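Q: What would this chain look like folded?
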Amino acid sequence: MNVIYSHNFNIRLGLASYLHPFDGMKFKKIFNALKSNPEINFIEPARPISMDLVDSFLSSMMRKKVRDPVFIFRALEVPKIPFISFSLLNKRVLSPMRWGVAGTMLGAKNAICNGGFYWNLSGGYHHAMQQNMEGFCIYNDIGICYQQMIKDGTLRPEDKILIIDTDAHHGNGNAYTFMENKNVTILDIYNSGIYPTSGYTRDRVNISVPLMPGTEGLEYLRRYREALEKLDDEFRIAFVVAGTDTLANDKLGGLCLTIEDIAERERLTLKNLNKRSIPAVILGGGGYSKASSKATAEAIKSCTYLKHKISTERTTSNLNHEHRKLGS
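A: My prediction, written as C-alpha cells:
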C-alpha cells in the first residue's frame, strides 16, 4: 500500500485545540502506528501547493477571505482569538492544509500514471468550494487537483471522474464545485440529520445514501454495498473521502460504526474499485474522536492485507491458467 504522509500535515492548533475536537496531530499518530509495516510504502510531497494554484481555483472574493483571520476562524468553527495573527494561522493551520492538498495531488497523479491505490492521510476537505470555506475545510483539494490536472494534461476534460464520500457529513463543497460538471459522478453516504443540510447540493449527488442519525455498522455497510453496485467501470480515477467521523464515539458525526466497520468499509471500497480497474486516491476526511487515528491505521493495515491477498490470488489464477494451457 502506498501511503502519503509528511510531518508537515500535522496541525498545531495551540489554544484553539481546546475549542474544537479535531486532533491536528492524528496524522503523526497514524504514521507511528504504520511505520514498521514492511508492506507499506511511504511517500511525501516535495512542497505544499502554492497559493498561486489555490488562487486560480478561488473566486476573487475568496482570495481575500482565505487571508483574513475572521473568516478563517469562522470556517474552523472556533471563536476568533484576538492575539492570533494571520501569519500564525498560516503557519499552524493553513500551511499544513496546503501540504494536504499537495498530498492529494501527488496521490492522484501517481494513481493515474501508475495505477493502483494511494492513501493520503490528509486532505478530503469536502466542505470547501470556490466561493466559500466552512466545516474545518479551507481549500477544496479535489477541485484544485482536478483543475490543475486538466491544465497540465494529466486529465482530459471528457474524462469521467468518481468521488466516493463516506464521511459522516454530506460533501457539499464537492457537490457545489462540480455542480455543472456531468463528467464527475458523486456517491455520498452520510448522516441526513446533521450539517450540511443544503438541498441543492444534496440533489447534485448521483448516488445518494442518506442515513438516519444513529445508524449502526450493519445497516451502513448494507446500504453502502448496494450503492457501490450502481457504479460503472468507465472512470479514469476515483477520489475517496474516507472520514472516520462515522465512529460511534465521534462528537460530530452522529453515526454508530466501530473501528472494524470502518476497516470493512474501506475493504469494500477498494474491492469494488479494483474489480472495475479504477485507480484511486483515498483521502483523510473528517474524524473528531480519540479513536480516529486508530481507525485509519487499522483500515490501512486491513487494506494492505487485502491488496496482498488480491495480488496472490491473481498470480495463482494466472499460474493455473498457464498450467491448463500446458496440459491441453
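The longest helix spans residues 292-327.
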